[in-house]
Description:
By secondary structure, the chain is mostly helical.
Amino acid sequence: MTKPNQKDAELLIRLWEMSFNPEMRKTWNWALELEKQSYEEFIKENPIGSDGWDHFQSIAGYYEMVGVLVKYDTINEDMVLDFHTLMWNKLGPVVKGFQKARESSRFFENYEYLAKRKTEWLKEHPPLYKE
Length: 131
């Protein structure tokens, strides 16, 4: 991976600004409170068109976009993976269930790509500070 440059930093800041507008802050707070559950449980409580579904789609869509930027080397991968937590542990089962229900692994595939890259990245980058 190449060393981050000014363009990478500016794009990361723009992503942060986009992801922390007032509406997205509500969405992130919703996700923090969300319990890990299966797609079937999630969709029962949060049917398509509900506020919960919209929150899910906003987060998954955001990470889908970030995943595309990383996959095509438009932004420095190390910076993105160091900055983002991804929430895949909670939302991954919903993504996988949605892909299965729609019979297409293309839905949110770049979010999944980003989550897999993060798993590998964490093996190579232990926490700076341990408790």
